[in-house]
Design brief:
Elements lengths: L1 E6 L2 E10 L2 E10 L2 E9 L9 E6 L8 E6 L5 E3 L2 H24 L5 H35 L1
Antiparallel strand pairs: 1-5, 2-3, 3-4, 5-6, 6-7
Helix pairs in contact: 1-2
Keywords: Membrane, Transmembrane, Transmembrane helix
C-alpha cells in the first residue's frame, strides 16, 4: 500500500450514483499538470478543487486502487472500502457455513461445495484484513496531522 500526498488542483467530471450496490462517486482530477480519469469510490465524499489529501493506494500510482484518503485541512478520514469488506465477509461466511452444512449432510458428493466454502472463507479473511489495515494506516496518519 502506498500513501501519496497530492493537491487536487482541479476536480472535474464528478458523478454521484445511487444504485443497487449503494452510493458511488466517479470523478477525475488534475494535479501538477497530470490528469487522472475515472476514479471510483464508495459513498459521496467531499471532493473539491484545491484540497490537499494523502490518498492510500493499493498499487503505486494506480488511482483505480484507492482505499481512501485523509483531508489535510480538516483531518477527516474517508475510507472507501471499510464497511463493504465487513459486510462481504459476513455474507461469505454465512454462505460457507450453509455450504459446509450441505457437505456434512452428504459428504461423498459435496467436495466441490467444500472447496467453494474454503475459497469463500479465504477471500473474506484477505479482504477484511486488507480493509482493516487500510483503516489503521489512514487513522494513524490522520492522528499525526492534529
Amino acid at each position: 500500500m502506498d500513501l501519496v500526498k497530492v493537491k487536487l488542483d482541479r476536480v472535474f467530471d464528478i458523478v454521484k450514483i445511487q444504485g443497487r450496490s449503494g452510493r458511488h462517486t466517479l470523478f477525475s482530477f488534475e494535479s501538477s499538470g497530470v490528469k487522472h480519469y475515472g476514479i471510483s469510490v464508495r459513498d459521496w465524499p467531499k471532493i473539491e478543487s484545491g484540497m490537499v489529501i494523502s490518498a492510500l493506494l493499493e498499487r503505486d500510482e494506480d488511482w483505480q486502487s484507492i482505499f481512501g484518503w485523509v483531508d489535510h485541512s480538516t483531518g477527516e478520514v474517508f475510507n472507501s472500502e471499510g464497511y463493504t469488506a465487513v459486510f462481504v465477509c459476513i455474507l461469505l461466511l454465512f454462505l460457507s457455513v450453509v455450504s459446509a452444512g450441505a457437505f456434512l449432510a452428504d459428504w461423498r458428493g459435496n467436495w466441490f461445495a467444500l472447496l467453494i466454502s474454503l475459497g469463500l472463507i479465504y477471500y473474506a479473511i484477505v479482504n477484511v484484513t486488507r480493509a482493516l489495515r487500510a483503516k489503521k494506516i489512514l487513522g494513524e496518519f490522520a492522528a499525526t496531522l492534529k
